[in-house]
Structure to design on (1174 residues):
């Protein structure tokens, strides 16, 4: 067994006889001497073998990259002129005395430092090699430290770590549920949990007061770049605390985490109502690193003849907004075309713009394909409202409210990134005062969060004006990402029934799907609320990682398969028979 | 929000104005005054309402058991003569000033202190009420403390908490696997993991050096009293450590845990080879709290005419053993009949016995139905070997080795418990030197642990004598329960192939099922090994709990269903269609 990790050796160890275990990271011949860079979890150390020790020299000569070895030797100063200041162990080297080859290695399918040249497929197929890369080692170690820090914070604050089941009840309409056929109950299925929501509420009814769990959750949906079929949630629930107290405690947890892990002070998180976030930033998770804001100009456009603007300006569900980009007049036609394509992703049918060249010339000084349609007077009123300066560009969106907000909201961030406009590295906030419900495309009503979220009004008011009712929900946002979200929950059976009613869930359906919750609410449910953080997302943000697959040891691909184990796989007819199912079509 | 937990109030708080949140545990009228015992997670406090404060008195009069309330009031000494030394808060009471009813409660289906009169069914159906019982609160809180302590121990020792997937690869022959149909890969299935075994080995190949995870595992089998379809494992794996080091570190973890959580010193754990455990205790997890041992007497029986003993005595796969119970001559016929039935569970066809009444009279002084078949001479030789004394009873087993060991091994513990023969409260040990393989009933060979366990011999020796080869496995046993088990793993591809070969797994099958492991072994796999503890079992032992369902918040029944949520449930035909499966029979 090792006496030291490779990466831990320093000048203070000079003169010590040590033992290392690790992998041959690199092998060099130089001046009749063999240099092995030996790697373990903690880093690299250079080990030197000279021909005086015949046996170990011959062995050292025979090793290849990724061989697993044990080395005994003497730590010494590196000869003058060979100190490597870029390596933490660069001041010393080990004079190798004994070498044992613990395991040989075939030439790996890719060298660790050449991972970018090989496709992600190859790396995922040989994940056990890919994970040897120092970046991957660092990220997963960081993840482990983060979960440990969070657990200790919650433990110190009286939270109990309680496990909830993975084999949950499947229900009809369980879209996105992964199903598990039951062998003992023919024709019945378990569902893997999308979150422990109901169980954590029941733990509050049971009086546990403060619960947490770092919980695996599952969602069977078509995967976007940043989703995984199984993901991990830091799941929190408390009793007898209102939204202020819950936000305060969890904000403090995240602040301490950033302070302790990254030495970053996030400061106090500002609060912003949902309506304001949508209006100013076109997003319910605004990225406040960028100062630009959307400005509404529908009132100035309502009376013009140009239908593209006037139509949405007069439509109560429409929006006309402008985004001023300081210094954006320099943007080329090509870049503007790219942005036009970009907002198209969000449904925008085009991207009107005005460049401000010489404001002192009035409308003459504006360069734009649309000024002639707006009329000079309206154009100048808009310029005035936006307080433009020479060299700015103004982009416009005019469409349904959702399209304009999403398109300009996304453009705001894209331009901000492209033009390096971030004014700070970290911009956290709370978004609050969400609507309880939103209209569906079919004119129905759906819960913006989930149907267990408490409204901030009475059941009567909720029933009278569901679409204007606000909820007691809150989302923690960092740099335009939703880190976590939660709410005060409904603890009153009558209120819960009202919400089901507004959502068009019949009494029978409510009883069938949530009977146990409704039951629980009548036997002394305390006021309660909580929050869930996405752990994968949190680690991505903290480590500056673009892909979720880089913060998970064994991730799935976008088609929800594992390249390494080739999951999912085929099973035997006998197995299916035991589960009382059969394949509809044979593959 | 509360200023104090109910259970935390003490004499030092007298004179303070405090706020409590909790449940009405009991309500009493006494001398025109109302007493409410208010309960929260930390305990009970008595709150007194007197008629002077009309409003709160009326409210206090209206509350019923399990109402959720907030109380503001003044802590004061209890009047002389009413101090309750059995309650931690029994020296004080709270004079209630304000009372708010936060939620009402219907009369619960059972009172918390009457849980034993209602069936487990009713309690599991209303688990959120059952969990309010102080015992359940204590057990789940204890469980949370244990996992936190274990995590911190492992974190302090450089172990990284790394999550492995729940959606794993299904394979044909995956008996006991829960299956999850894939929507994106028609006709393919995921399997829920029985353990993270292969992933943790791959993490070692990836160089993480020390891994742990408190991991959910799944097994679809007919449930015995102490099993659950989903259970939790403390899963540990290390590189470059041999069995001594791994056992040392994990033994220390368990010792510290018992010391810190229960103030119990387990001392050093003795080691016992598997063969010795089977011989002396008839079990691979001997309960060393009881001193009795099995004594082999086949050599004395081989030549007698009585076939029941002589047959197994001469059979190389047979065993004839005796169990001396000091003071057991007092056992009644009825109890002996019960024991006879008991050993029948393990396949024993009967239970022969000899009572030692007056040893000084020789065979005359023995009372037994079998002495006449043994012959007096043999009977006395057995008595001599067993060093019997007057008042003892000797039980006999004669059958296949497995039957005798299991039957007498179990009887040993049963008698030990019945007669209070435990010599200590805690008896830990390591069982080591397990055989690599055992013969199956069909004459084949199966792995005693799993096929990734390293043997303590060369591939050649293993191949030549598979049934006598020993493995580098180890089990930690406490009071006759297997707390955890593990082994040094195979890190050499050739050795792994040899083991598959001995097990009759063809190259194709090995490639199909474990190709990724075999692949990984050729790219620089370090020597590695590990261990997994059953967390549920550990908590049961530490809290003295008989049923696994008492240490899990939301357990399944023995038919693998959840009484509360009624899982598993039915799903729609559309859901199944999307998964490309259909039911074989409609239920």
């Amino acid at each position: 067994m090792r006496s030291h990790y490779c990466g831990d050796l320093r000048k203070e160890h000079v003169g010590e006889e040590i033992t290392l275990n690790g992998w041959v990271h690199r092998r060099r011949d130089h001046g009749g001497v063999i240099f092995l860079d030996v790697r373990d979890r903690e880093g690299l150390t250079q080990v030197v073998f000279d021909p005086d020790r015949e046996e170990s020299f011959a062995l050292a000569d025979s090793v290849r990259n990724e061989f697993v070895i044990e080395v005994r030797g003497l730590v010494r100063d590196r000869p003058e002129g060979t100190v490597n200041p870029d390596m933490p162990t660069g001041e010393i080297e080990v004079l190798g005395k004994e070498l044992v080859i613990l395991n040989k290695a075939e030439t790996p399918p890719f060298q660790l430092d050449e991972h970018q040249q090989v496709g992600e497929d190859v790396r995922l197929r040989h994940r056990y090699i890919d994970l040897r890369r120092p970046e991957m080692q660092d990220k997963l170690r960081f993840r482990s430290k983060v979960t440990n820090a969070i657990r200790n914070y919650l433990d110190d604050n009286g939270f109990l770590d309680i496990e909830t089941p993975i084999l949950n009840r499947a229900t009809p309409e369980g879209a996105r549920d992964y199903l598990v056929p039951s062998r003992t109950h023919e024709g019945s299925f378990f569902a893997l949990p999308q979150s422990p929501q109901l169980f954590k509420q029941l733990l509050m009814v049971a009086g546990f007061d403060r619960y947490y769990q770092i919980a695996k959750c599952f969602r069977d949906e078509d995967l976007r770049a940043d989703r995984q079929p199984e993901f991990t949630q830091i799941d929190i629930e408390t009793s007898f605390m209102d939204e202020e107290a819950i936000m305060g405690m969890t904000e403090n947890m995240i602040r301490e985490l950033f302070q302790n892990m990254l030495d970053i002070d996030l400061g106090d998180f500002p609060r912003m109502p949902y309506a304001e976030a949508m209006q100013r930033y076109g997003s319910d998770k605004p990225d406040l690193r960028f100062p630009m804001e959307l400005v509404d100009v529908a009132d100035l456009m309502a009376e013009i003849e140009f239908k593209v603007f006037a139509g949405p300006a007069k439509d109560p569900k429409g929006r006309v907004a402008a985004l001023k980009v300081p210094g954006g007049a320099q943007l080329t036609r090509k870049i503007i075309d790219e942005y036009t394509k970009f907002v198209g992703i969000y449904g925008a049918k085009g991207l009107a713009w005005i460049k401000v060249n010489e404001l002192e010339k009035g409308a003459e000084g504006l360069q734009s394909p649309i000024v002639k349609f707006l009329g000079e007077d309206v154009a100048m009123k808009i310029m005035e409202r936006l307080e433009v300066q020479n060299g700015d560009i103004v982009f416009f969106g005019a469409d349904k409210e959702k399209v304009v907000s999403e398109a300009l909201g996304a453009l705001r961030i894209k331009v901000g990134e492209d033009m390096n406009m971030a004014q700070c590295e970290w911009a956290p906030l709370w978004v609050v005062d969400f609507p309880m419900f939103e209209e569906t495309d079919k004119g129905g009503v759906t819960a913006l969060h989930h149907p267990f979220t408490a409204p901030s009004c009475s059941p009567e008011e909720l029933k009278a004006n569901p679409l204007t009712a606000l909820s007691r929900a809150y989302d923690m946002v960092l740099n335009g990402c939703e880190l976590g979200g939660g709410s005060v929950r409904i603890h009153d059976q009558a209120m819960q029934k009202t919400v089901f009613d507004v959502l068009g869930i019949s009494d029978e359906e409510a009883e069938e799907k949530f009977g146990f919750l409704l039951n629980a609410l009548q036997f002394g449910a305390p006021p309660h609320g909580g929050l869930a953080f996405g752990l994968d997302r949190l680690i991505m943000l903290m480590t500056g990682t673009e892909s979720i697959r880089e913060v998970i040891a064994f991730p799935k691909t976008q088609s929800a398969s594992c390249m390494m184990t080739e999951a999912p796989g085929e099973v035997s007819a006998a197995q299916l028979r035991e589960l009382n199912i059969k394949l509809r079509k044979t593959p």
Notes: Chain B has 18 helices and 24 strands. Chain B has a mean pLDDT of 95.
